[in-house]
Amino acid sequence: MGSEWKEVLLKDVCSKIGSGATPRGGNSVYLSEGEFSLIRSQNVRNDFFDHNGLAFIEKCHADKLSNVTVEEKDVLLNITGDSVARCCQVDPSVLPARVNQHVAIIRPTSTILYAQFLRYYFVSPTMQNEMLSKAGIGATRNALTKGMIENFEIPLPPFSEQKTIAHILGSLDDKIELNRRMNATLEGMVQALFKSWFIDFDPVLDNAIRTGTPI
Length: 215
Fold this sequence. Notes:
Blueprint: E1 6-9, E2 14-19, E3 36-39, E4 55-57, H1 59-64, E5 69-70, E6 75-78, E7 87-89, E8 97-99, E9 103-108, H2 115-122, H3 125-135, H4 146-150, E10 153-156, H5 159-198, H6 203-211
């Protein structure tokens, strides 16, 4: 199946590839909440969109970054620094949004390249290694240029196969996340019991253990 997939340049199957800028005034104009989100490299993780540290900007600053308006399903790629090559899709809940100069927007042509398929390909070991290798060429700081990104060669299965692959991987991700949350809940219960028994010396728990009463 994979051997029959054709290879294409990313620029030929995307309607937009581009990074943003820091608003004039830098960190001083960032808000803790507001109408327009400003997505930075710390928000882009390979497994998810990280809301921690999400900045906001006023409309006057957002208007000056209108050429890097993020749209639903856009793929976000970190292009500089130690987090270069990290990739995720935007969380629709943070829209309307812009990106700064450390993050690239990649917007697949919706009838040709399925955005979720592209995101999964970008976080695959093969593509991660390729991007990290290219980012370290001829620079003191890791960076992926627009030209590099545009000329990435990617596999292009039939559109229906792209969707099937993405949905299967998405279902597995959902199960992994559910297990992670269950493990976190169980760990919290264990810690609470540990504290009750060995720190608070909770007599209720002691009595429950002696009598065999369910906790």
